[in-house]
Amino acid sequence: MPIYNAPTKDIQFVLHDLLKVSEQDIPGFEDLDRDFTGAVVEEAGKVASEVLHPLNVVGDTEGCVMENGVVRTPTGFKAAFEQMKDGGWTAMDCDPEYGGQGLPYVMHTAAQEPFVSANMAFNMYQGLTHGAYSAIHAHGSDEQKQKYLPKMVSCEWTGTMNLTEPHCGTDLGLMRTKAVPNDDGSFKISGQKIFISAGEHDMAENIIHLVLAKIPGGPEGIKGVSLFIVPKFMVNDDGSLGARNGVACGKIEEKMGIHGNSTCVMNYDEATGYLIGQEHKGMRAMFTMMNEARLGVGLQGYAQAESAYQNAVAYANDRLQGRDVTGAKNPDGPADPLIVHPDIRRNLMDQKSFVEGARAFTYWGAYLIDRAHKNDDAQADGLISLMTPVIKGFLTDKGFEYATAAQQVYGGHGYIEEWGMSQYARDARIAMIYEGANGVQALDLVGRKLAQDGGKHVMAFFEMIKTFIKENEGNEALKADFLEPLKAASKDLQAAGMYFMQNATKPNNALSGSYDFMHMMGHVCLGLMWARMAKAAMEALEGGASDTAFYETKIATGRYYMARQLPATAMHLARINTGGDTIMALEAANF
């Protein structure tokens, strides 16, 4: 049976030593002292390890079952969902006007991590609801907010997002779902949506679907798409539930992973829907949900790697295989534990240095969202817009890579289901695909985000790195191991950006290098996080911190990332500089 223990000390380190949340000038952050955040994180970790983690393998093996249109979730899920609701975990950062606790988004993110690590499929039910809540909160009418949000905040009602259709995924302009106006201002929604996470289940009394559809006579393509609220059960004026709406689950998809989440084909047969926002402006409202979801999916990537890593470390310490080449470490036993071998250490250090850097990067992203929303900070808004495809794309690519790396530590046992390691790889795999496949994230980064607002956000990012290096260049403890590698990697990233500018008349050159650029930028972002974390750890040690081993380990882990992982930027730059000719050389018929 796999293990999971929430990394509460590491979470607290990021919140306080790195981000210094209680010292920020953001409304609500003044309440985030160590005692408060520690209590929240410890309790979230307890719920994760004691309630959600034991259900992870249950969800994987049982899956969801549909009979006569009714979807049953795995054994124990419904009771656990009630515990999540009763504990207020679904309402942490939601608007108090609708029953939320009003905490900063960064605290929601910190609490979500243990839940995702413990049981990713389960957490998707509340995660999708949170995204639907955010879209209605940002774009819905006052009447819509009052009608739907209180029950969604409490997760008495859950939510979904309905984009994909059988014939169109990324190219949503091809969608066929129709929205025909009714005389009363509502619409008749007809069509089919696929891959709808939490589309039907038995854990909530109502499900509020957010559905993209086209109003007849509107503009062609993506400009003609509108967003609608389509409840499973109609909601009466007094808040009570009325008749069943014309929406039903056609089937549950058979998937590689996340078996505990009901991924549904949803059929809309003249279902009653209500427009959110303006006609033909549906993508604007949906992106409120999708951008939040993309940070959450990036978190899923490293959170699955965290769980897999914990188990790999335990196995490497327990499994006896071979002898240490420098001398036996377990002379009274038949062999030494796996962890003595350099290649196992390399594997584990790759995992550890990624996960801890990714956590810092993701929480920093959540902090930027808070700053953008609560302080109306345009610079923070631009910066998180730039970082979102990197958080989603890079962290999920690497999260899957390191979930399988953890599996490798087990050797043959990693391939055997009873050890549980395959689930981490299978569950992590979807994160690279949904909420915009990672190739699309790379295209978004290079094709849109770099040039956004005249390129000022990426220039601000480069300036941030330059300023950090300049402010700390007198710190000899940081210079060689952290500042110099960061400077070199940043120059690689700038050189890649310059290549794209110089080849603007040859778009295939930029598009062919976009995936490498996304990974290069991901490495630079983690390099910046590690340089900052190393500085924070050194300051803690200088200040007489009692847990010296924790901070010394943090510095050593960061040193590893800078030496062994960050140099990958040079490889990605070399690939980008080859242009698009080699990629586009073959005719389609020659593949």
Strand count, sense and closure of the main sheet?
A: 7 strands, mixed
Termini, distance in Å?
44 Å
Shape: globular
- DSSP strand content: 5-15%
Provide mean pLDDT, rounded. 96
Ranges with pLDDT <50 over ≥5 residues?
none
DSSP strand count: 11
Helix content: 40-55%
H/E element string?
Answer: HHHEEHHHHEEEEEEEEEHHHHHHHHHH
Structural class: alpha+beta
* Radius of gyration over all CA atoms, rounded: 24 Å
The number of helical runs is 17
Helix/strand layout:
Blueprint: H1 8-18, H2 34-52, H3 56-62, E1 65-67, E2 70-72, H4 77-86, H5 105-118, H6 120-139, H7 142-153, E3 157-162, E4 178-181, E5 187-197, E6 206-214, E7 225-231, E8 233-235, E9 241-244, E10 247-252, E11 263-276, H8 282-318, H9 342-374, H10 378-409, H11 421-429, H12 438-449, H13 456-471, H14 476-502, H15 507-542, H16 548-565, H17 568-576
Descriptive terms for the model:
591 residues; alpha+beta; 7-stranded mixed sheet; two-stranded antiparallel ribbon; 54% helix
Structure description:
Helix content is 54%, strand content 12%. It has helices at residues 8-18, 34-52, 56-62, 77-86, 105-118, 120-139, 142-153, 282-318, 342-374, 378-409, 421-429, 438-449, 456-471, 476-502, 507-542, 548-565, 568-576; strands at residues 65-67, 70-72, 157-162, 178-181, 187-197, 206-214, 225-231, 233-235, 241-244, 247-252, 263-276. The strands form three sheets. Strands 3, 4, 5, 6, 7, 10 and 11 form a seven-stranded mixed beta sheet that branches. A two-stranded antiparallel sheet has the order 1-2. Strands 8-9 form a two-stranded antiparallel sheet. A hairpin with a 2-residue loop joins strand 1 and strand 2. Helix 10 runs antiparallel to helix 12.
